[in-house]
């Protein structure tokens, strides 16, 4: 499979595509808290579920979508956790929410016990071990009360889990009576091993239980011909995808991708297409999801949706989001999606049209992100975009604040331009559409909010703008236009002033490369000091000089 060639300014991977993390970054300005459950489980060595709270928090609500467990207000979440921490009695409820909430409480207790054990705080270790036993017993009891009949395998693991809980409580109680440090040290190793085994049993039990619940949801979607039932069940499945890659793998393995594409192929469920597609995009962050998509001819289904104007814009935008996910250059397994090439021309044409007609920034972002990733996927895509006058479409959109209003969107546009700029024919289109002026503007991209995500997006825009300029400046007409517009002055400022590039090394390297390309065409545009420090030395020497500068010398 062909990839866009590099030309020395930076590696093609370096200027980045837009995978799952990228997609949800602009949709979740102001994300939720850290991965508490995942951290707790991983710290005790359980290879189970990592729950990145708010990782996929979307700003556009979906009908029937429940407020996700990890997306609620932090004070409200703390109150709920406090209630769970202090109540061990069983009660009715949704099995999935019960598992996730109790799972978080137990994993937190395991992590805290590990911390207290490291500090030799034996009284706390014992009291927390007793409390852990209560929570484990409550989870088993509560889940048994609300779930279907338990399997033999689950019953065996439940028994092993409770035995280890009892063993942990007993051994930590004995440790309270021991004063000999040498004996206590050997017992500490025993407690640590028991804690680790207990954690493994807990992870196995949780995985089995969640798998059963996922199976039930998938069966319900697969068998349903009722729009309300399908909507509710798909919403539940979407909520589960937000719990991280391990649950997405379970969903893919248990037929979730097959069931969702079945929904997307039934006209009676058209109003549910956006929700089903959004769920598919989340599942396809894992290899199993992409493989399942290919097995059910998912790419062909996406192409049909994108090229059918009778579908709503929201539906086509979510189909674009799935395309963006499955073509992400950051996920190595997406590069083997052979079926994509068969439908690529149809998909690229539809995405350019969606960019041109987008009624909102969100729709334009999803469509342009898919195009950006496709330009990494195969070089033919760049040639197709040139034929479709995509440069004009993208550059015109830059002056439309309704479509292009964030650095995340400009990141997608400049990614496409950077990859297209390897084609010689691209330069004339850029000049004709006043593209050099827009690229200069991207070199001055600044964050509005100062959030880490937005700052990082601005750095990517600056870096890719410099890369694009360097590539396009092979054409003397582009180089002269860049000099006329004072691009060299801006590049020098970015090189010499760390604050202008947020001290980004990637931006610095790209700007030095672009400056050297322009200087080769128009050396008269540089002062002697700039030439001697930024152009004449080896690139690494200029890089070291600029990276050590405290502030601009200009």
UniProtKB/TrEMBL annotation:
Domain spans labelled Protein inscuteable homologue C-terminal: 102-554
Q: Which Pfam families match?
A: Insc_C, INSC_LBD
Q: Would the keyword Cytoplasm be found if you checked this record's keyword annotation?
A: yes
**What InterPro entries does the entry give?**
ARM-like, ARM-type_fold, Armadillo, Insc_C, INSC_LBD, INSC_LBD_sf, Inscuteable
Q: Which UniProt keywords apply?
A: Cytoplasm, Developmental protein, Differentiation, Neurogenesis
Question: Boundaries of each Protein inscuteable homologue LGN-binding domain copy?
Answer: 70-88
Gene Ontology process terms (BP): apical protein localization; asymmetric cell division; cell differentiation; establishment of mitotic spindle orientation; nervous system development; regulation of asymmetric cell division
Which SMART domains has this protein been placed in? ARM
Where is this gene product found? Cytoplasm, Cell cortex
- A GO molecular function held by the record: cytoskeletal anchor activity
A GO cellular component annotation here is: apical cortex
What's the chief localization of this chain?
Answer: cytoplasm
| Role noted for this protein | May function as an adapter linking the Par3 complex to the GPSM1/GPSM2 complex. Involved in spindle orientation during mitosis. May regulate cell proliferation and differentiation in the developing nervous system. May play a role in the asymmetric division of fibroblasts and participate in the process of stratification of the squamous epithelium.
- What's this protein's name? Protein inscuteable homolog
**Which organism is this protein's natural source?**
Camelus ferus (Wild bactrian camel)
């Amino acid at each position: 499979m062909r990839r866009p060639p590099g030309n020395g300014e930076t590696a093609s991977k370096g200027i980045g595509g837009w995978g799952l993390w990228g997609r949800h970054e602009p949709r979740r300005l102001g994300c939720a808290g850290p991965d508490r459950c995942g951290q707790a489980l991983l710290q005790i060595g359980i290879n189970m579920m990592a729950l990145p709270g708010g990782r996929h928090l979307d700003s556009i609500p979906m009908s029937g979508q429940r407020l996700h467990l990890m997306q609620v207000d932090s004070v409200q979440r703390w109150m709920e956790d406090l209630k769970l921490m202090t109540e061990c009695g069983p009660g009715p409820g949704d099995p999935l929410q019960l598992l996730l909430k109790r799972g978080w409480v137990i994993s937190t207790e395991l992590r805290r016990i590990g911390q207290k054990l490291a500090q030799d705080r034996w009284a706390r270790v014992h009291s927390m071990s007793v409390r852990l036993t209560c929570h484990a017993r409550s989870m088993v009891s509560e889940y048994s009360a609300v779930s279907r009949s338990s399997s033999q395998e689950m019953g065996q693991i439940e028994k092993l889990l409770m035995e280890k809980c009892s063993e942990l409580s007993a051994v930590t109680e004995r440790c309270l009576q021991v004063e000999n440090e040498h004996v206590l040290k050997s017992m500490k190793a025993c407690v640590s091993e028991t804690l680790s085994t207990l954690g493994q049993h807990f992870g196995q039990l949780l995985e089995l239980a969640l798998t059963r619940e996922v199976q039930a949801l998938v069966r319900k979607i697969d068998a349903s011909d009722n729009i309300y039932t399908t909507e509710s069940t798909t919403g539940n499945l979407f909520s589960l995808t937000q719990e991280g890659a391990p649950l997405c793998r379970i969903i893919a393995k248990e037929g979730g991708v097959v069931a969702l594409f079945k929904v997307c192929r039934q006209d009676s469920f058209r109003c549910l297409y956006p929700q089903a597609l959004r769920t598919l995009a989340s599942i396809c962050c894992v290899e199993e999801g992409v493989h399942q998509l290919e097995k059910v001819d998912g790419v062909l289904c996406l192409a049909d949706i994108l090229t059918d104007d009778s579908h709503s814009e929201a539906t086509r935008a979510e189909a674009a989001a799935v395309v963006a996910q499955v073509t992400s250059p950051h996920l190595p397994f997406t590069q083997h999606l052979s079926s994509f090439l068969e439908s690529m021309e149809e998909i690229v044409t539809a995405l350019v049209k969606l960019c041109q007609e987008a009624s909102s920034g969100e729709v334009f972002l999803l469509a342009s992100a898919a195009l950006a990733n496709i330009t990494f996927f195969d070089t033919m895509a760049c040639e197709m975009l040139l034929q479709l006058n995509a440069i004009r479409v993208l550059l015109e959109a830059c002056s439309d604040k309704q479509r292009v209003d964030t650095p995340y969107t400009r990141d997608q546009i400049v990614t496409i331009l950077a990859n297209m700029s390897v084609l010689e024919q691209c330069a004339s289109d850029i000049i004709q559409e006043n593209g050099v002026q827009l690229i200069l503007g991207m070199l001055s991209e600044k964050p509005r909010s100062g959030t880490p995500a937005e700052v990082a997006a601005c750095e990517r825009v600056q870096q890719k703008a410099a890369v694009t300029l360097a590539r396009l400046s092979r054409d003397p007409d582009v180089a002269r236009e860049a000099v006329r517009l004072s691009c060299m002055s801006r590049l020098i400022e970015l090189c010499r002033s760390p604050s202008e590039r947020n001290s980004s090394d990637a931006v610095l390297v790209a700007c030095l490369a672009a400056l050297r390309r322009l200087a080769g065409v128009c050396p008269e545009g540089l002062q002697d000091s700039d030439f001697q420090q930024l152009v004449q030395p080896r690139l690494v020497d200029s890089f070291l000089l600029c990276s050590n500068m405290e502030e601009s010398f200009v």
